[in-house]
Design brief:
Layout: H1 2-31, H2 37-59, H3 61-68, E1 76-79, E2 82-85, H4 86-115, H5 118-135, H6 144-167, H7 169-172, H8 175-205, H9 210-238, H10 256-268, H11 272-302, H12 308-340, H13 342-360, H14 366-394, H15 401-430, H16 433-452
Antiparallel strand pairs: 1-2
Helix pairs in contact: 2-6, 2-8, 2-9, 3-9, 4-5, 4-6, 4-10, 4-15, 5-6, 5-9, 6-15, 8-9, 8-12, 8-14, 10-15, 11-14, 11-15, 11-16, 12-13, 12-14, 13-14, 13-16, 15-16
């Protein structure tokens, strides 16, 4: 009897707790309604907070810093018992990180859906990523394994938080708002990241010798971590927490995410448009993300800059050009999709990416690299924001957006793993990143063919 009453007492407390949290959630949502300007702005503002990672760590200062650690022309490094080409090592570590995210995100999404608190998971990854960025201050070849751990933390923190961030989109915005708010998020991210990058570059360029420049780069990694954690607080304050179901997480719950992915896959078989779109997205996203992750390494190694000073300046200018033009590209893509339809616009953008891969194989001079960077800027933000909002639009009527976006993110991450591994192997075997870039041409071509097979809405014909 005692056990019976204890159990009922526990269940009663759980129900009371769940009811209280539900009332808090409903009160919060009554104050900040779906589609409201405050809610949309708060969601988009997380791009402002976290995009400094993609620009400073993934795309600009860290690649330059990493390359500068190798003093000899033969850039080799020993790690995990093997000798790697420097660019191949960072490519393989990046691929491994995305594999971890692909495996981990369904588990965490399943827990978040069951517990009803995806914001907690989003915050966890945000802070892990922020700590990883700060840890890069101590990055060195002598401590290569610890250094790569910090790199791993930053990367997994960024992409892990995006699993839950993206899943908020259909929750906070109506269908007709999603293209615009998605583009706004990317645009805010580009503006915010450029502002911090300019400040960091001013720090680096204020020094005359290489040792002091490297030290300023280390300080810039700290500023990224602080910026990311600090500015994300507004998003965390405004976004709804979710509805707690008052349940404890058990061992069986850990695999809920995989069961949900299986359920999503079964539903996709009945939704021809969404299924075919995901096939296309998987292929072209594989190539886009790979290029974005290795672009600066390619520019640093394959372009004839003349000297180290010109190389650093040239890469910095290229990065700024990409970011500035990406702001306009995201908005132009949003307008083009409204006029011509999402799929037609994505097909055109993929044609441009395919052409850039072919052209990239032949570029050798800084001027050619600047031209390529300008074109990449126009299509980089556009294809990311439009791919995300197109998927959101194609979703069936459901309240389980986390599972669908978990499926989207897993598909994207597995694609990146494949793309980075292929890129790294070609680079390691042939000794040239040009061959790797040219191979990505094939993925865009396949992506275009698959996009043509996606059924169009009447409004898009």
């Amino acid at each position: 009897m005692g056990s019976f009453f204890s159990k009922n007492c526990y269940l009663s407390k759980s129900r009371l707790k769940a009811t209280a949290q539900l009332n808090i959630y409903l009160k919060h949502m009554s104050e900040i309604k779906k589609g409201s300007k405050k809610l949309l702005n708060a969601w988009a503002f997380y791009d402002w907070a976290n995009s400094v990672y993609t620009l400073t760590i993934a795309s600009s200062i860290f690649p330059i810093f990493y390359s500068a650690l190798f003093l000899s022309e033969i850039k080799k490094v020993t790690a995990f018992g093997y000798e790697f080409k420097s660019t191949a090592l960072i490519t393989f570590v990046t691929a491994f990180t995305f594999l971890v995210v692909a495996v981990l995100s369904p588990i965490l999404s399943g827990i978040a859906d069951y517990v009803g608190n995806k914001k907690t998971f989003m915050k966890f990854f945000c802070y892990v990523g922020s700590a990883g960025c700060i840890g890069l201050y101590w990055f060195s070849l002598e401590r290569i394994h610890l250094s790569l751990l910090f790199y791993f933390m930053g990367l997994i923190g960024y992409w892990g938080s995006l699993v839950f961030y993206n899943s908020y989109l259909p929750d906070i915005a109506f269908e007709e708002q999603q293209d615009k708010v998605s583009a706004k998020g990317f645009s805010l991210g580009y503006v915010g990241s450029v502002l911090l990058l300019i400040a960091n570059l001013a720090m680096v360029m204020s020094q005359e010798n290489g040792v002091d420049k490297l030290q300023m780069m280390r300080y810039s990694f700290i500023t990224v971590g602080i910026w990311w954690a600090l500015f994300s607080q507004y998003t965390f304050y405004v976004l709804p927490k979710g509805v707690s179901k008052g349940h404890r997480v058990t061992r069986s719950i850990l695999f809920n995410g995989f069961r949900e992915l299986k359920g999503v896959w079964k539903q996709l078989k009945q939704d021809l448009r969404l299924k075919r779109y995901l096939y296309a997205f998987f292929v072209f996203s594989m190539a886009v993300q790979t290029i974005m992750l290795v672009a600066v390494y390619f520019g640093e190694e394959e372009i004839a800059w003349g000297n180290d000073e010109a190389k650093t300046t040239g890469l910095i200018v290229s990065i700024l050009v990409i970011q500035i033009l990406a702001v306009f590209g995201a908005f132009l893509t949003s307008r083009a999709s409204a006029k011509f339809g999402n799929i037609s616009t994505l097909i055109v953008i993929n044609f441009i990416w395919m052409s850039l891969c072919f052209y990239g194989f032949f570029i050798e001079t800084p001027t050619q690299f600047y031209i390529t960077a300008s074109l990449v800027g126009f299509v980089m933000g556009g294809i990311q924001s439009l791919a995300r909002s197109t998927y959101s639009k194609f979703l069936p009527e459901t309240t389980d957006t986390t599972s669908y976006f978990s499926f989207y993110d897993v598909a994207e991450k597995i694609g990146i793993v494949i793309g980075m591994l292929i890129y790294g192997f070609i680079d390691q075997i042939t000794g040239s990143m040009r061959n790797s870039i040219l191979f990505l041409f094939v993925f865009f071509l396949i992506g275009i063919v698959l996009l043509f097979r996606v059924p169009r809405l009447k409004t898009e014909l």
